[in-house]
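Weekly sync notes, structure subgroup
Attendees: PM, AL, DS (notes)

Item 1: joint prediction request from the bench team. They want all two components modeled as one assembly rather than separately. Inputs as received:
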Amino acid sequence: MTNVNVTIEALTRRGTLAGVFGAYSYASFIVAGPWIFTVLGLSYLSATACDGSCADLTIFRSVVIYNSMYSLIITSPLAFFAGRYASRQLHRGCDQHVFYVLVLSLSIFLLLTLLLAAPFYTLATRLEVYEQVASIQNLLLIGSAWLLIPFLGVIRAHNGIIIAFAAGSLAVFVLGHLPADTTATSLLLSFNGGFAVTDLILLATIVRRFGSQIVVDHELKDEWRKVWELPVAGFAYALGLWIDKIIMWHLAPSDNLAASGALQTMPSYDTAMFWSQLSSIPVIAVFLVHVETRFSARLSEFHTRMQQRASLGELKELVQNAARHALSGVVGLFAAFAIIAAMMILTSLALMSELGLRPAYMSILRVALCAMAFYSSAILCFNFLLLLDLRRQALLIVLTFLVLNGALTVAFLPLGPAFYGYGNMFASAASLLVGFGLLFKELPWLNYHAFITNNASL
Amino acid sequence: MAVDADVCMIVEGGYPYIVGGVASWADAFMRASPQLRFHIIAISVSSQSRRPSYALPENVVGITDILLDVCPPGVTPNRRGQQQVERLISLLQTSVISGDGSVFEQFIKHLLATGYGQTALLDSKAGWLAMEAAYAELLPSSPLLDFFWSWRFLLRSVLAIARTPLPQVRVFHAAGTGFSGLAAACARIATGRPFLLTEHGIYTNERRIDLAVSDWLFESGAGGFAISARPSELRSTWMNAFQSFSRISYAMADVITTQYRTNQIFQCSDGAAESKLRIIPNGIDADKFSSLARNTAPRRPTVLLIGRIVPIKDIRTFIMAIALLKDLVPNALGIIIGPEGEDPGYAAGCRQLVDQLGAASSIDFLGRVPDVMEYLLSADVLALSSISEAQPIAVLEAAATGLPVVSTDVGSCREIIEGFEGDPVKGAGGSVVAPCNPKEMAEALAVILLDDRKRAEMGDVMRRRAANYYHKDRVKGLYEALYAELQTSPPQPQQVKLS
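Output from the run, pasted for the record:
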C-alpha cells in the first residue's frame, strides 16, 4: 500500500466523525492542497478588496493564476519523481538521502523560476518593481507547497498537512484585514503570508522527520534514468491541464483581459474551468479514501501472498478481485462526477453571483463540467496505472490529453464563443477512453507485471 | 574448411577458473596433445569468479564464456510472433520433459531462424502465457514464485547456450552431459560438426545428490489449502530436466566415451545407444610417478586424502574414520589436502567435527599445497571417502607412485584397486569399502597400516596396473585416433529453416 493510502485507512478505521473528516480533508489537500488554498484565498481576498472591477484586483488575480500555472508545470515533474524516490527510500529503510532530494528539487525549481518566470514578470509585463518582487515571491511559495506535499504524504503526516493549510488560511484571513489600501502588492503580500506560514509548517514537519543534514545520493541519476517516464508524465499532466487556458488567453479573439502587458487572462473561460475543477475535489477525495485505498490494500495482499508462495490459481483470483474493484471504481466514480456536474449545471444559475460567474460564462461552465467528469475519470485511470507502476501506459493518458487538448482547443477557436471549451471536453472524453482501455487491458496482466515488468530482481 | 581450432572443449562450472576433477582432467588432456589446437567454451554463472586458476596451455587458442544466467535479448516479437513464441516454448518444454533429441533439434533450428532470445521467450506477454501453460502442465498448484525462478533459470540457460557464437572447429568435445552436453548438441545442430561426449561421472547421479542436499529447493506446501492441491514437486522437475539434458546429449553425440564399464550401464539406462559407447580411461604420466622414490624416513602412520572440501567428497566420513583409527593404530595421522573455498560452510563444519571428536592432533587440514607429490611419497595409504566419483586422478597418481588406496565403492575405484575382467595385473592394491561407513574405512586402513608386507605388495600392484592401463600415452593415442575418425566424417551443415 502507498503511504497516503495507509494513512487514510488508519484515519477511517478510527470509526469517529473526526477520523472520517480528517481522512477526507487529508485526501483533498494531498491531491490539490495548494490549488484549493489558492482558489479559497483568491475568493476571500477578492471579496475583501473591492467590487471586483478594480485594476489592482485584476492584476492580483492574474498573477496568482499565472503562478498557479507556472508552479504546477515546473514542479510536477520534480514532485512526481521525488515522491516516488522518497517512498522507495523509506520502504528500503534508508532515508538519509530524502532531505537532499527535497533540497535539490527546491533548488531546481528556484533556478527554473529565475530563468523562466522572473524574466516574464520583469520584461513582458508592466508591473511595478514591488509587484514584480511580490509576484516572483508568490510563485516560489506556491511551487514550494507543491514540492513539499509529496514528502508529507510519504511520511504519513496527515496532521501536519491539515494544520499547515488551516494555519495558512488563518494567516490570509488576518493579513487580509491589515492593509489600509488594497493594492496588487498588498493583496499579493497577504496571500504570500498565508502561503509562507503553510510552507514553513510543511517544511518543519519534514525536517523533524528526516533532519536537515544533506547526504548526496550519487545513484540519483541512475534512478532518474530508470523512471524517466514519471517526470515526463508529470510535465505532460501539468501542461495538459493548462494548455487550453494558455491558448485561450493569447489566441481567443474576444473576452481576453490584459492585466499588464503579456499578463493576459480570460475570466469567462478561467472562472468556469476553475469552478468545474474545484467541484471534482470531493469525488476525488472519495476516490482516495475508498476506492484507491482498497485497491492498494488488494495489491498489497497480492504481493504478500505472492511472497508467501501462493499458487498461480490463487494469485489469479486476487488479480481478478483487484481488477473488478478498479474497473467498477472508475465506472462508479464517473457516475458520481456526472451527478456532480449535473447538479452544478442545475444550480449554477441560482448560485451565479456567489460563484463569481456571469450569464455569459454559463455555456462554458456547462461544457467545462462535462469535461471535468471525463477528465477526472481519466486521471483515476492514470492513478491506477501509476499504482501498478505502469509508467509508460500512464504517460500515454496524459500525453493524449495534452496533445488533444491543445490541438482541439485551437481547432474549435474559429467556431466562436459558443464552442469555447468543447476542445477541452472532447480531449477529456478521448483521454478517458484511452485510460479506461489501458486499464482494462493491463489489469488482468497484474501477475505478468509483478513478475516481469516491475521485478527489480530481473 | 578454415578452422579456428581443431577441437572445441566444452567444460561446465570449472576450467579454467576453478580447480577440480574435470578441470584438472581437461588441463592435462590438452597439454598431452600439443599438436592439436583447442578452443575452450567455459560454462559458468555471472556470480562465479572468472579469474583463471590455471595457466592456459599454449595450444589453447581461444576461450568463449557462456554465463548461464545471462542470455541475449534477441529479436523483439511482432504481433504475429506470439504463435512462434508459443511453438518454441512448447518445443523446449517437450524436450526438457522428454529429453527427445529430435524435438530439441527442432527447437534449436526454430530459435536460430527466429532470432528470439530473452525478450521474446521470457519477458514478453506471449512468453508469460507460455510459462503459465508449462506451470499448469508441470506443477499446477505449486508456488508460482518457485516455479517462475526455476523456469526462468532453465530457459535462460538454454537460451544462453543456444545463442552463443560458435568457433569454427573440426570436433566439439563436451566434458560431460548437462549444460556442456547441451552446448555441444546445439553446436552439432548448428554446424553439423561431430560431437564427442566424454562423461566422467554420471551427470544425473551427481545432480540427484546436489538436489537432495540443496536447501534452496524446498517443498513449502504453500500451494494453498485447496483440497485438490497437489504437493509441489519442484525437485523432481529439476531432476527431470537434468535427465533430459543427458538424454539430449546422448542422442546428439556421435561417440560417447567414459572411463569404466559401470558408467555405461547408467548411460544405457538414460537412453544412450550402445553403438556409440566406448571406454577410454583417464591417463597419467605413469613413468614420471613410478620413477620417484618413496620416502622411507620414520614417520607417524599417515593416511592422505586429496580432494576439495565439499559434501560430495564426504570429508566427514574420513574424519570419523581417522578418529576411530586412533584406537586401532596409535599415533595415526590423517592429512587432508584440498581447497576449502567452494563450500566454506561445509569446511567449517568439518573442522568443528574434528574438535568435537577430539581428533585435532590426528588430523591436519593443509588446504592447497604447492607440491602434492611430496605428500604422496611420504604417505602410507591414500583414502577416498567420496559418495560419487568417476575415475579420480588423485587415486591414479597415488597408484602410480606405489601407494595403496582405501576407497569407497564409487565410480571406477573398484576397477582401479581390484582390477577388471581381462586385466593382466592380478591382485588388489588396497581395499574398497561402502560409502558413508567410517568404521569399515577405519578397519580397512588399519589392516594396511599395521602390515608392512601387505602394504608393499599392494603398492606394487597399484604401480603396475597404473603403468599398464592408465598410461597417458595409451590414452592420448586412443583420443587422437577418435578425433581422426570423427574428422574424416564429412561435415553435415544443417539447413536452419522454419518447418
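Discussion: Chain A touches chain B at residues 306-315, 445, 447-448, 451-452, 458 (CB under 8 Å).
Action: AL to compare against the crosslinking data before next sync.
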